[in-house]
Design brief:
Layout (H helix, E strand, L loop, with lengths): L23 E2 L5 E2 L30 H11 L3 E8 L5 E4 L5 E2 L5 H13 L8 E4 L11 H8 L2 E4 H10 L3 H11 L2 H10 L11 H9 L12 H7 L3 H13 L4 E2 L1 H12 L6 H11 L18 E8 L2 E2 L2 E2 L2 E8 L5 E10 L4 H18 L3
Antiparallel strand pairs: 1-2, 3-4, 3-13, 5-8, 6-7, 9-12, 10-11, 12-13
Protein name: beta-lactamase
Catalytic activity: a beta-lactam + H2O = a substituted beta-amino acid
InterPro entries: Beta-lactam/transpept-like (IPR012338), Beta-lactam_cat (IPR045155), Beta-lactam_class-A (IPR000871)
Length: 366
Amino acid sequence: MSSVVLTGCVGSAMIPTPRERGPVRGPNGSVTVPIGEPAPAPQPAPAPPGVIDPGFRRPPAGLEARITQLWRSFPGKTGIAVRRIDGEWELSQRGEELFPQQSVSKLWVALTVLDAIDRGELSFDQKVRIGPEDLTLFHQPLAARVRSEGSVTMTVRDLIETAITHSDNSANDSLLRTVGGPEAVRRFLAKHDLGKIRFGPGERLLQSGTAGLKWQQSYSVGRAFQQARAALPDATRKAAMDAYLADPPDGASPAAIGRALTRLARGQLLSADSTQYILGVMSRTHSGPRRLKAGLPTGWTFLHKTGTGQDYKGMTAGYNDIGIATAPDGTRYAIVVMLGTTTSPIVQRMALMQAVSGAVAEFHGR
């Protein structure tokens, strides 16, 4: 397989907000959010009759330059990877470096569970009890039900749906517990040789360690975790955050995630039924509607998983979106954008993501 890997240094130019420069709609309806001054895209001659689509073996002319320009213009540590799933090329910026995944890692939990189902070790209808002792922190809509009812019993199928489409941390940790813990996920990643994709210790230990705290179950109630974190000396918080960013236990490289999405879409990780099921679940993701998905024009579909880390003095440790975009003609692309550290406003983070997916759509078919 031929491979295009881009290199460079992250610039410090700030992204104009949408009020300063509005989205540009391309001739095929794609949306590009301007970031800096994009390099002019060369217009290749159409392929002669009978010649294979040139976009199968190499990126469309101009896409590499556009992705490079977007990457250089965004401040902070940024990783981008794009692969044509039904082709032979990939391109990336900082593609092999580790970035915090945060809730992107919920996808590997779901795949591990589905692999266990394929092997007959679990079933979709298996029931799992979730009590107050199983609750986690941050985004967990399931917690309200647990607290009002005392405990909740859900099927594995419902937990997968809740963990992926609503990014519910308690649903995800319940799946993780059911499938055998973090080591089960690591075995799945290793079995399929998915490369630079780590899996951390689970939501509670990952987040408390990142903050400089030792987990206590009382942190799962209300805003107890945030209050305990705010009471820490700043030196403690900074040391913990620096250690996390230097060597994230949940780190993954954008290129490795792009390859994993490619293999998932090709049916190389799970059975045909499980592959179809999880892709369907990812198509119903509620989080991040203004991230990568918003840059695609009408007629394109997108299925994905987002991830967002903790904030520290205006810096977010992990702001991500990964997914599979499908063009109206059926061509599929794996798109990964990971912001390892950024202080840019959320609107600018989303603008970058929209510009990346918009570029893929704009250059498709060239």
